[in-house]
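Milestone M4 deliverable, item 7.
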Amino acid sequence: MTSSCPKCNRNNGWDVRDYDDQFPICVYCGYQDYAKPYKRPKYESDGVSYQVPYTGVAPAYQGKQITVRVISASLQNSKGGIGYVVDCPFCTEVMQEKLRWLLKYECSNKHIIRVLDEDGSLTWK
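Output delivered:
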């Protein structure tokens, strides 16, 4: 893409929008170059990470937090929605979803926890 607009010949007036498949537009005259759509670069994300506190009754785990990453569930299965990638609080394993509708997770060492989503905040038991 050239740095000057082909219509008004002003330099550095191109605005590239943040949406996929949009056309560059001149901020001075409004000309859009339909010949070359702008493709935003794709990126991989590990998801949004949260430190989730324990809210159970066992005093030994009070104050203990786990890391939960929120990702697109379509990366885990074909049902879509959001999903959680949970780190086991007892070992270094990543936990696998055991019961989706209960948000129960189990690691390979058979540790089982439940992630709760209550009033917009995540906790675990």
